[in-house]
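This section describes the prediction task in plain terms. A model, or a person checking by hand, is given the sequence of a single protein chain and must write out its three-dimensional structure as a string of tokens. No templates, partner chains or ligands are provided. The sample shown here is typical of the held-out split.
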Amino acid sequence: MSNNGGAASDFMDTVKAFSKSSAKATVRYFKGLPSRFVRFVRRKVNEIRNRPPRKDINKVYVLVGYTTKAQVDAKFNAERHMIILRRGLLALIFLLLLFISVNRFTEMINYGELSQMFGVDSMSDFLKNDPFSSNKPVTETEMAGQLTSPTSTVSNTGL
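The expected answer:
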């Protein structure tokens, strides 16, 4: 890169160098295509030629090396047992985490404080004015009176 022409000639030199290297790489890629294609076709032909003959629709497996069908079946069963064991342990861990988290959260809840906040001491207090209860029919005027009547008085302590 020469400094004679300034920034424009430096830019042009950079573009020329980039285009020259790109052209070389492209030519090299296209020159290699035929041999790459020939290798691919030869590999596929050899794979097809070396396959065991199929007598039905099922896939045929070739045992490679010193092994027997019993050893292959034993390995398959061992893998299956490991998968079942892994799933069981995962479920057990999930249940333990759920139990621990529920146990921790229920310890932190102060039920006395909650009943004071909501004004309900027990479920019977909560359900005694149930308008859908079949024990005692509630009229619309009683419901309106319950909604407008104050349930507790708030004392003004001057705070």
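For orientation: Helices lie at 7-49, 69-108, 111-118, 123-127, 140-148.
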